[in-house]
Amino acid sequence: MTEPVRPREVAAIDIGSNSFHMVVARIVGQSLQIISRHKQRVHLASGLDEHQNLDQAAIQRGLNCLAMFAERLQGFEPENVRIAATYTLRQANNAHVFLKRAEALIPYPIEIIPGTEEARLIYLGVTHTQPDSGQKLIVDIGGGSTELVIGDGFTPQLAYSKHMGCVSYNKHYFSKGKISSKNMATAQLAAQQKLESIASKYTSKGWQTAIGSSGTIKAIREVLIGQGHSDGVITAKRLQQLYDAILKVKNSDDLDFVGLSDDRKPVFAAGVAILNAVFSSLNIDEMIFSDGALREGLLYEMEERFRHSDIRVRTATSMAKQYNVDIAQANRVKTTAELLYNQVEPQPGLTKVELATLLSWGALLHEVGLSISYPGFHRHSAYLLRFSTMPGFNLEQQTVLATLVRFQRKSLKLEEMPELSIYKRKHLYPLIRTLRLAVALNGQRSDDPLPVIMVDADKEKWQLTLPEGWEENNRLLAADLRQEQEYWRKAGWELDLSPN
């Protein structure tokens, strides 16, 4: 008798500015069955100093939490775990210190995701755990940032992330827990100013239902229930009454609401000020709460990552169109790069498969910078790929794409390569070499197919084998490849060209 196949288990960790969350789920048929949730209040954002460096105490709190989470994840394969870090690690200049020390404790890559990507994943998490309600506005107030998304079905249409959160605002406007009408008003006004640039876009797009997610809005809902509003709906009137009630105390320690936990007290006033600003700026009448958030979004996207790869394909295609990329040339370079890389890495592991995918997208987008100007277009391309909003890509993946296109041509100033955390520099070198060769070999921008090209790679020494007699018929290409040899030599690499 055969053993029944065990359902696949997946896990997602959200490294937030206030709390770290982990959720573990079992995939049963077409649905996710949550089997455990874990939450630890870490207050990571409170460890950011005036130079945007995390202090050692905050780093240690975060590492202690990850070490606990790692115990639950023993035996999980890398493809079944996703860890996303948000606002605080986006801001921290010494984030690499935290990531390096975390490597020794939890054997899965930590992705630092851009704010708009955080917003998209939150939207995905909420919509999968909420009955469809047509066009919806989703607001998520975290420890360091607030995400606001409007969408329909599973498609977000408008997404922004604003630098305002309950931990950062508490630190800035409510020093030592002091509460006053001036502090509350100043915090709310600051949040309204952050929202000023996007408010009209949201109100003109409109929505049928406003939904809140994550800890701040959950805490507000629980306090309102404790005040007798059993439906748990947050209305503009109830929120204003709560705002006024907070002003009756002088310090956050004295907040005494039914449903408000002691560890939420320090950041509660800041959270209410921010939500009040959101209600006021967007003219929200009422808001319901959803248990779904970023971590659920990570989980739902993980199933074969089909949604993840789909969104990245759409992002890359859209970007190529936006910057008028010559698609025929981009595809020629992409095809050549894939053929060469398959010879260099015939049996890639999970990391190399992901890098091969990034190589393909890098090839597709290597000329986006031409829309700015031809001189130095590789640098323009790098800038656009590093700093554009690219749904589906985390910051490290955008950095890899930017690095590949930055080094696609001209001199190899490898000392300018940025710091990486998930991947290592040695992982990127074969990709850079491959893309450079693909770009050089397609320099004539011709529709004529390239001859059969073989590459043999031995670390820094690569041998390129082309058909006998190719040089006589392709003198320009031969000159380009000899120039490429010189670039490689100056970087300490070796490119050998030999006829078949």
From TrEMBL:
GO terms for cellular component: plasma membrane. The keyword Heme does not apply. GO terms for molecular function: exopolyphosphatase activity. Keywords: Cell membrane, Hydrolase, Membrane. Its main location: membrane. GO terms for biological process: polyphosphate catabolic process. InterPro entries: ATPase_NBD, Exopolyphosphatase, GppA/Ppx_hydrolase, Ppx_GppA_C, Ppx_GppA_N, PyroPPase_GppA_Ppx. It comes from the Bacteria. The keyword Hydrolase applies. Residues 311-485 form the Ppx/GppA phosphatase C-terminal domain. Gene3D superfamilies: 3.30.420.40, 3.30.70.2260, Exopolyphosphatase. Domain 2, Hypothetical protein af1432. Pfam families: Ppx-GppA, Ppx-GppA_III. Residues 23-305 form the Ppx/GppA phosphatase N-terminal domain. Its EC number is 3.6.1.11. Belongs to the GppA/Ppx family. Homodimer. This is Exopolyphosphatase. It comes from Photobacterium lutimaris.
